[in-house]
Design goal:
Layout: E1 10-13, E2 28-31, E3 55-57, E4 63-67, E5 72-76, E6 90-95, E7 100-106, E8 111-115, E9 118-123, E10 128-130, E11 142-144, E12 150-154, E13 159-163, E14 177-180, E15 186-190
Parallel strand pairs: 1-2
Antiparallel strand pairs: 3-4, 4-5, 6-7, 7-8, 8-9, 9-10, 11-12, 12-13, 14-15
Length: about 200
């Protein structure tokens, strides 16, 4: 019932090897078919998987990690969540080819989404900070208020500021309020406590 195997160079498993009380392989070990580890297993060096060979985790193969020759996959087939945890300062998604961070999830703090290493969207304690432009397609709206009370959008031909609420629409300015043409010509100029 007990099999001790000592491999100092190369050892190939052709069928089934059972080591009920443990074993040590000091050289390269090649597993040519499905291999099950039912207890703690320690690798003192690299564990290499060929293309499309999968590391399966869970009694029902609930999670898989593998490379198909082009892309790398972490796949979750279980009924629960796929959860990434860290005790470090942050969990980062990194672009090895270009040497910069693409996304940064800071522990007990904000999330940063980056473009070529430059932060474009960052969550804060009070909301979201955005660096750069926000581009919306035609008829896509910026909507304000719990009841969609105000909308900003472009319909492909015209631009709209639409107040759907029950109150008034106020435009406030510390100086003049001017409506201008695309050529920067004044069409309407309103002066505080003065003429229009």
């Amino acid at each position: 019932d007990l099999l001790n195997v000592y491999a100092f160079k190369s050892f190939q498993v052709a069928d089934t090897v059972s080591a009920s009380t443990g074993g040590t392989f000091n050289g390269q070990v090649t597993f040519g078919a499905n291999t099950a580890f039912n207890s703690n297993t320690t690798f003192g060096s690299d564990a290499t998987f060929s293309d499309n060979s999968k590391l399966r985790i869970g009694n029902s193969g609930d999670m898989e990690m593998y490379h198909n020759g082009v892309n790398s996959f972490i796949s979750d087939f279980g009924q629960g969540k796929l959860i990434f945890t860290t005790n470090g300062a942050s969990l980062d998604i990194y672009d090895n080819a270009n040497g910069h961070t693409m996304a940064e999830f800071k522990n007990n703090a904000g999330v940063k989404l980056k473009h070529q290493g430059s932060t474009k969207i960052e969550t804060t304690a009070t909301g979201v900070d955005i660096s750069g432009n926000i581009r919306l397609e035609d008829n896509a709206k910026v909507i304000f208020g719990a009841g969609s009370d105000m909308e900003l959008f472009h319909d492909g031909s015209n631009s709209h500021i639409r107040d759907n609420g029950t109150g008034n629409l106020f435009l406030r300015g510390g100086g003049q309020i001017a409506l201008k043409s695309p050529a920067e010509e004044n069409m309407v100029v309103a002066v505080g406590n003065g003429a229009v």
